User: Fold this.
Amino acid sequence: MSVLRIVPNLAAADPGAAAAFYRDLLDLEIVMDHGWIVTFSCNSATTPQVSIASEGGSGTPVPDLSIEVDNIDLIYQRAKSQRLDILYELTDEPWGVRRFYVRDPFGKVVNILSHQ
Assistant:
């Protein structure tokens, strides 16, 4: 038996409002839209993971979602230009990631990161 994927389901009154954040900021594609649920994806292989944490590291709160990207500086600049709510500025962490926290349209704290 193998876990094939893990899909976080974030509650939102208007799932369509997610496009400006998840599509425009992160270049994810809408792969399913039934109105009541919108699924974003990209064409890359990943390993299913679930993290359980008592804090987010460096004294930050545990984020609701972590998204690894290949160009953190580009995504950070997009977030700044879109005037998104950045909760934790772009930081090089001692455990080898470069990351920032941003709030999505539904109030979720998203940890955007790249491994260094």
In short: The domain at 15-115 is CATH 3.10.180.10 (2,3-Dihydroxybiphenyl 1,2-Dioxygenase; domain 1). Strands lie at 29-33, 38-41, 65-68, 86-92, 97-103, 109-115. Helices lie at 19-23, 72-81. The two ends are 33 Å apart (CA to CA).
